[in-house]
Amino acid sequence: MTAANPLFDYLLRLGDDSLVLGQRLGEWCGHAPALEVDLSLANLGLDLIGQATLFLELAGQIEGAGRDGDRLAFHRDALQFRNCLMVEQPNGDFAQTIARQFLFSTWQHLMFEALTQSSEPRIAEIAAKAVREVTYHADLAGEWVVRLGDGTEESRQRMLDGLDWHWRFVGELFAMDAVDEAMVAAGIGVDKAQLRAAFDARIAAVLQEATLPLPAYPRPALGGRSGHHSEHLGHLLAVMQHIPRTYPDARW
Amino acid sequence: MSRDWPLWEVFIRAKGGLSHKHVGSVHAPDATLAVRHARDTYTRRMEGVSIWAVRSTDIVASDPAQNGPMFEPAESKVYRHPTFYVVPDNVTHI
What we know:
By secondary structure, chain A is mostly helical. Helices cover 67% and strands 0% of the residues of chain A. The chains are: A mainly alpha, B alpha+beta.
């Protein structure tokens, strides 16, 4: 895939990952298994929406077409979203949500850590702030993987099912295309292949502590980075966007 | 789920040099998650720099029924308050 402005596209990818997952986590609000978990998930979601705001605001400046972060978040359709497929997956039960958070946050943590060295100072700055938040996300999700995996027979089975849902979306996290290559060449982006060993080691360590088997990765599902999403994203966007689209001039 | 989890009392140190203060309680399955839950419940607005979590059942409390013998004898001991000293005008923070 070629893009007219790879930096704009790159920022959409970073911002949309956080935005879509933040929206998903917001769906747990008032429905989590315990009040404390409700707050944990909402905190994670708000961290992610904060990151999305920064990335999408910057994307709007780079694009220079007068679109701000809100415009990009609420007035694009599914085909224009650049998030990975994993973050748009439905919450399922608590274990499936934790599986997604564990895999994604572990990847995002490595990603942001690397982006603190970006030659684009505004990206490095956002990454430096966000990496502390995501360190906690990965840690908390890992703690829950251990407790559910090494818990009761039912929690273990649910954790296995939750992880099974998500293994096919891991490959996309590390896939490189023309946008990535251009950003790496410019010193702005991350060579994601370099992150894979650290990712695999972290996943293996937590799964071992959780007494869960290591994954046999299926053929990866791809497409999110070029706008080819699963059917779940459209439903998510309908909920997320309907107020600003119904009242485009609303302010609060 | 939380009904099955033990209760933990949460203490937060607002900043270095201050003591930990009781702020409330959380349910959590174990000590590690008790601190995580305390963090997510009670330090969302930069309320603290340190968290203690203690199993509620490990707290030893005085018996409210014994409040009379426990606390009332102190009422008539006004000399225990350092109120009979003259504090010089230029001494502050006392």
